[in-house]
Specification:
Length: 651
Amino acid sequence: MAYIQFDKAQLINLKYSLSKEFIRSNRAGSYASSTIINCNTRKYHGLLICPLKEFNYQNHLLLSGVDETIIQHEKEFHLAVRKYPGHFHPGHKYIRDFSSEPLPSITYRVGGVILKKEMLLAQEEEQVLIKYTLIDANSPTILKLHPFLAFRNIHSLSKANIDVKTKYAKAENGIKTKMYDAYPFLYIQTSKNTEYIHAPDWYYNLEYIEEQKRGYEFLEDLFVPGYFEFSLKKGESIIFSAGLNEAKTQTLKSKFTSEIKKRIPRDNFENCLINSAEQFFIHKNNKTEIAAGFPWFGPWGRDTFISLPGLTLAINKPEKAKAVLDTMSKQIKNGLFKNMGSHDDADTNSVDAPLWYFWAIQQYYLYTKNAELIWKDFGTKMKSILEAFVKGTSYNIKMHENGLIYSGIKGKALTWMDAIVNETPVTPRIGYDVEINALWYNAIMFSLEIAEQISDNKFIKTWENYPEKIKKSFIELFWSDKKEYLADYIDENETNWYIRPNQIFAASLPYSMLSQEQCLRVINKVEKNLLTSRGLRTLEPQNQNYKGTYEGNQETRDAAYHQGTVWPWLLGHFCEAYFKINGKSGLQFVKNLYFGFESEISNAGIGSISEIYDGDPPHEPRGAISQAWSVAELLRIKSMIEYFEKDKINN
């Protein structure tokens, strides 16, 4: 039995089934995503979304979906589920079950006809394969397939127009077509010789209910060039293929089978996380990057470094960690990394990404234990970042005389709390930020540790006096014996004492400036005010600025993004800090948090973990349906659990 499976009663309940989405990537930037009944509810849903070189490798949606029609005794039964204003095209009444293992698959029943549909995205190719199998039929059966095309950027919507190209050219067992000249051809083919009937037409006002909820435009027109029609015998299968290169149709069935063998079974909680982890990697153009999340995030500097240890080292894939670090090391500019994307004009407005780079390398070192290789491969880059922070770089990022890092300019949000509403940061945090300076101290201490092991005396002499100065200033400014926790940030006018999760990094990082007692106080404060079953809140509920739900239009959502919304990734550092204080006696507490996420595998983005959750119970999943650092930190927590379980057994 599949680990994630839904039955007829669940599937025909649209409120339930439309809230469950699947995501599959090809490990080269392309992905396929929809709901479990194949009713698209987002502009980001589709069966073939690809980064196109013609558009600076931005993601474009080519194939929105395929609508199936079963014909028996000259009667047509339409299996598609689509939302139009005021009504649904009700194909869901024919759906009998959905399974995610080994592939997203739907079984339909129309009278005596049972048809199975299995969807597969080829690895490292821009090609989607759909296998249709006629499980049972009492009389001759014909299947008709209508491909719905969009040919647009994932963030926009398609509208009917007179510029669309309605012509097509023949391809092996199919056609090649493109809606506009600027695009590459899309090859639409089948594994056996079928009849293609050219009947270009627009379908108007398809409604995306999730976009409507999020306050965006939500009506789209899709183009159908024509349809494929063929007969199927009981027990027979046919492969439908859509891709950017012409397929050899006689090999489609064998390719489908071989592709399945590449999949990691989603047969338990951990394997679902591992499979999800694999999907974030983008291997393209001799680079290895990490997508921050699906379906709308690309590679982000900060997210890459925070996610990297969990997505690679926690599942024993150090070679992937090295590949990502090598790729990212080439992108440093004035001590900073590109924040969103890897294109040339990407902004470097992230003060913490360079410091998380040190942490990611530090985790890689703890895995490999090879100081010489670390210094050889990354030492020059590490030194350049430290020097840039001391001298000062963009966005007023600079070390002050007290050794602490000051950063920020009006109108910009440089930390991970970077939501902006009406061109104004919701949490500007200009000044000394608690996690930035905790990361700064850890970066210098780690660099000194490596330098000492390989006897880089020049570096040691330059930097050995910094840590004590930083630690002294940090404790004096951030710690309160009376409050028993750390300030969030300090600007020229005030010390901000909002209880936020940013202080947990001062306790969790390998090199901490806090005493054991101070670490304990921070952990207790965070646990009491911020800890939930889905991660840490970004602000305590008692605060007047607290927002308990994340919904509404973009302005409303952004205002709640870091003002109470729960983030799973923060749980990794909370658990790390908890273990540092409690050792193996904290094992059961952490295990309860980790396994508490098992039910989330069949919620929202099935087989993965969402980006965020509401601050208020029952902590509904929100944001991206599959987030890299959410998955990564759960895998890292699992590795912590395994370490202390092993230690417990040995003792």
